[in-house]
Amino acid sequence: RSSVCIHLASSLFKMAPDMIQIYLKHASNPLEATICLAEMIEPCAPMLIGMHKVAGVWHMKIKAIVFDAYGTLFEVYSIQVLAEEFYPGQGADIALKWRDKQIEYTRLITQSDPHQASGSQYFRPFWELTRLSLEYTLDRLHLERESGQIEKLIRQYAHLTPFPENLAVLQKIKGMGLTTAILSNGSVDMLASAVKSAGMEDVLDHVISVDPIRLFKTSPESYGLVQQTMRVNKDEVLFVSSNAWDALGDTWFGFTTHWVNRQGLPYEALTPRPHFSGSDLNSVLSSLEHWNSTKV
Q1: Which residue has better confidence, 15 or 28?
Q2: pTM of this prediction?
Q3: Between these two residues, 176 and 32, which has the higher pLDDT value?
Q4: Distance CA 248, CA 243 (A)
């Protein structure tokens, strides 16, 4: 039997128990009879339980869109403008190496102690890792660590430039009646400042930080925070990230995924590929239209 028929059978019991009891009263095998009934009404699945077919395969419709923050909604490399002002000729290199070291530290912390219920004993908030990563970057480039400049660069990270299309896209998604959220390695205060600075407070239902679990992406625990926050199945979530490694981790976890490939990079050699991809956040709207359109 197809999984959709089993799902329908379960839904029938919940939706119309009295009707089903009458139908099954004279059935020798109630479960089999219910599944047979489900098979007969299978074309009505989208209306009954929110399922639909894409390319002949049954899927749940997307109910929630979850965004990565840094690089997806907020331009992490916009920091190079201020870095260039402080360190002429070095701004782009600072921004790139700073970001790489920041991600490297999150992976080191998570991979070195991944199995404790209380999270990694080496955990440090993302805000602290951001500072340490900057200090390392300046040392690596043999640049002076002047405290005033470091403080200004750090504060700028709380007010990163949002990509220009983001707000309009988020407004359209909210207009569809979908739940919106951020799931990020970022600290709670960092994310709150960035969201407020970008004017996105009214278009995001949830802003989820990994701080409570003390483990960073791509740990399964980090992605599991989505379902702890919202009552959704994995396949009812479209996870959107501009980081290819994040999109792959989301896909492995079981989310439907969209990679915002802003830099025109190749797909990761590791599989599977994300379900969708595009060059900016506008492409998410096309993915939603494709995935949630009923094809029976």
Answers
A1: 28
A2: 0.81
A3: 176
A4: 9
**Helix/strand/coil for 166:** helix
DSSP reduced 3-state for 70: strand
Tokens of 184: 């990020």
Residue 163 near residue 281 (C-beta atoms within 8 A): yes
**Across the strands, what pairs with 239?**
66, 257
Secondary structure, 3-state, 81-107: HHHHHHCCCCHHHHHHHHHHHHHHHHH
Phi first, then psi, for residue 159 (nearest 5°) are -135, 45
Instruction: Point out the residues that are catalytic.
Output: 68
Region class of 177: left (phi > 0), else alpha (psi between -120 and 50), else beta: left
Q: pLDDT value at position 152?
A: 93
Between CA 23 and CA 40 the distance in angstroms is: 14
Q: What is the C-alpha separation between 233 and 230, in angstroms, rounded?
A: 9
Determine how many CB atoms are found less than 10 A away from the CB of residue 37.
Answer: 19
- Over the stretch 263-285, which tens digit does the pLDDT of each residue have? 999 999 999 999 999 999 999 99
The DSSP call for residue 55 is: T
Token digits for 39?
């098979």
Report the relative pairing of strands 276-278 and 57-60 from DSSP bridges: unpaired
For residue 257, give the nearest of 273, 279, 268, 271 by alpha carbon.
Answer: 273
Which of left, alpha, beta for 257 (phi over 0: left; psi -120 to 50: alpha)?
beta
